[in-house]
């Protein structure tokens, strides 16, 4: 084999072993907050929960019930974003929940951010919890999150939700979604003072109300489709400290179940992650081929099979902490390359949508390019 051939054969090994040895440990699940033990009533009167809701009648009741179990004094504002179902009526039936009727979506705004913009004027507390309408907090979670915020002296803390896994496609793709998010936005770097990475999980964000105002939220990011990371960037640029972690106590109620529904979730923002750059899309495609395809080709070579095996073992080892965290069988690591092929296809699907004039499609709304 030529020198160039050996260099090519070593690439996937360097990629996967290098990932395992990276000091910021992007594969790790060490950044986490879980619900603490129930120790009696907790005073949460300094927090207002802001929930944007559009056609969430099937889950909003569970979300609000989860909030009622967190402690006393918690104020809740639900912004009904032009729902056509019973979202507003269900929300209004809960005590201490204020329902704000959302106005029609103005041009140049993303729906969720417009709902949050309307709701923020009703916040009077020093801390705001931005919570998606399909997120249920387990008892004790909000108290643990608030304690972590104070202990770490952070002005912005967010938790990535535990996505429901009820089907083969869920188990194959949803833990991998979190895995790839951590590779793209290493939590350790995002949680440091470095400005290189700023990331958040939009389903659950506890933030100082003053930090929101100083960062210009939500008008300054009104057209952002990846609103959580954009907001984290704005807050960090304003001089505040952010933190992002995992939690099994922040539970997503939204069912996926099918490959099509997961595709819609990923494709609505995958090309946005790449800045709508065709060059970056091609670079990502080449990297995926090298990382996931080349090791299998190396296995077929008498001189290179050991390199292919080493790359595959390192790849799967990097995925095991995520599987352990979500209490899944470790054998799912064997299917990581298959999941990677599907995610690459969803990214291309997102790009094709964009080239056809559709920037994103979500909640019966289409955002044009």
From TrEMBL:
The keyword Membrane applies. Pfam families: Glycos_transf_2. This is Glycosyltransferase. Keywords: Membrane, Transmembrane, Transmembrane helix. The keyword Iron does not apply. Residues 48-212 form the Glycosyltransferase 2-like domain. It comes from the Bacteria. It comes from Dyella mobilis. PANTHER family: GLYCOSYLTRANSFERASE, SLR1566 PROTEIN. The chain crosses the membrane at residues 6-24, 274-300, 307-326, 332-355.
């Amino acid at each position: 084999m030529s020198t160039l051939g050996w260099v090519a054969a070593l690439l996937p090994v360097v990629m996967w072993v290098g990932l395992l040895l990276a000091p910021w440990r992007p594969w790790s699940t060490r950044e986490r907050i879980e619900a603490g033990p129930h120790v009696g009533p907790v005073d949460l009167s300094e927090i207002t929960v802001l929930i944007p809701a559009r056609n969430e009648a099937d889950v909003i009741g569970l979300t609000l019930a989860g909030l009622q179990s967190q402690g006393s004094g918690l104020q809740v504002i639900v912004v009904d974003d032009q729902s056509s179902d019973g979202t507003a009526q269900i929300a209004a039936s809960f005590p201490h929940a204020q329902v704000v009727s959302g106005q029609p979506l103005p041009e140049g705004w993303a729906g969720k951010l417009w709902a949050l913009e309307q709701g923020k004027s009703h916040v009077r507390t020093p801390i705001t919890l931005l919570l998606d309408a399909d997120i249920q907090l387990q008892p004790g979670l909000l108290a643990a999150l608030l304690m972590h915020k104070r202990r770490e002296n952070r002005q912005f803390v967010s938790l990535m939700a535990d996505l429901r896994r009820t089907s083969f496609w869920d188990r194959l793709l949803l833990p991998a979604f979190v895995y790839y998010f951590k590779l793209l936005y290493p939590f350790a770097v995002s949680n440091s003072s470095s400005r290189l990475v700023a990331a958040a999980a939009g389903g659950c964000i506890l933030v100082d109300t003053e930090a929101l105002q100083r960062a210009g939220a939500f008008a300054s990011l009104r057209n952002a489709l990846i609103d959580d990371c954009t907001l984290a960037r704005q807050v960090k640029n304003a001089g505040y400290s952010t933190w992002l972690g995992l939690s099994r106590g922040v539970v997503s109620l939204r069912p996926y179940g099918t490959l099509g529904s997961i595709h819609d979730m990923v494709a609505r923002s995958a090309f946005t992650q790449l800045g709508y750059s065709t060059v970056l899309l091609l670079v990502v495609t080449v990297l995926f081929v090298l990382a996931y395809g080349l090791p299998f080709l190396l296995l077929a070579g008498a001189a290179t099979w050991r390199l292919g095996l080493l790359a595959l073992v390192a790849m799967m080892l990097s995925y095991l902490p995520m599987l352990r965290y979500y209490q899944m069988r470790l054998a799912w690591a064997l299917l990581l390359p298959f999941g990677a092929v599907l995610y690459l296809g969803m990214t291309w699907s997102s790009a094709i949508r964009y080239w056809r004039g559709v920037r994103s499609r979500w909640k019966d709304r289409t955002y044009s390019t």
